[in-house]
Amino acid sequence: MNILITGGTGFIGTPLARELRGKGHSVTVTTRRPSDSKDKLTWSAPALIPPDIISRFDAVINLAGEPIAPRRWTKDRKERILSSRINTTRALVESIRQIEHTPLSPLDRGERKRLPKVLISASAVGFYGAHGDEYVTEDTPPAGDFLADVCKQWEAEAYKALDLGIRVVTVRIGGVLEADGGALPMMALPFKFFLGGPIGSGRQWFSWIHRDDIIGIIIFALENDSVSGPVNMTAPNPVTNREFSRSLGQVLHRPSFLAVPGIVVKLMLGELGAVLLTGQRVLPEKILRAGYRFKYSDVSQALRAILGK
Length: 309
Description:
Blueprint: E1 2-6, H1 13-22, E2 26-31, E3 40-42, H2 51-54, E4 59-62, H3 75-100, E5 118-124, E6 135-136, H4 146-159, E7 167-173, E8 175-177, H5 184-192, E9 205-206, E10 208-210, H6 211-223, E11 229-233, E12 239-240, H7 241-252, H8 262-269, H9 271-276, E13 281-282, H10 285-290, H11 299-307
Parallel strand pairs: 1-2, 1-4, 2-3, 4-5, 5-7, 6-13, 7-11, 8-10
Antiparallel strand pairs: 9-12
């Protein structure tokens, strides 16, 4: 398969591209910097990708977007978080759409115009907002806060590709665990200084996933035409923040009883802090039904695999 990845040099995109190449796929990643490398495409939204280039790909994986954490959400930062996702996804779909309206060259008259078969586009469990102890599945409706609004608009742009006959999968990603990025290094830091513990009450749910399973689910979705629509990308056993802190402390051989007061989190991070003090108990119902088998379904097992390296 010939695959295009936006955000292909990031925390998820880099190992995903490596794994796909290892499976024999041809992978091109987008970059904003000028490049003449055969596996990199110089591109930045809102510009469109020329039809003779975008038509080469069998699949498009869209992972681009401004990081949501760990800084406060100022007005400008919220705008960047939203626009970076909307502009990239919209430009990708419009790039694909223009294939249908571009005449073939005289040399290509005998060939059929080719559109990508599948678009896999990132989203987040922030789609659901706070739900207390309630279980959340792909059928749970969206919330009305900032993150939910970002996810709704982000996914809406991706689903415009359905009009072109393209299979669309929106992967709603939870808290990704790995040592070289994401939230885990920052979460583990106070434990290393014997200052670790839960955030706030510790009762809020944390829907986590090992990065290996992020990569596994994306590849599973690429290879299985039956997977479409929203897919929760979280491990099947979410834990409370207190349970996660206890497991992290055990793996690091550190205590985990020094809770960070909720008021401190809100003062430091503002609206983002309020999100960290709530949570969702998300279940990956659809991908389990489709037959995907998680490599890491227990949080202690996942943390030992990461931090015991």
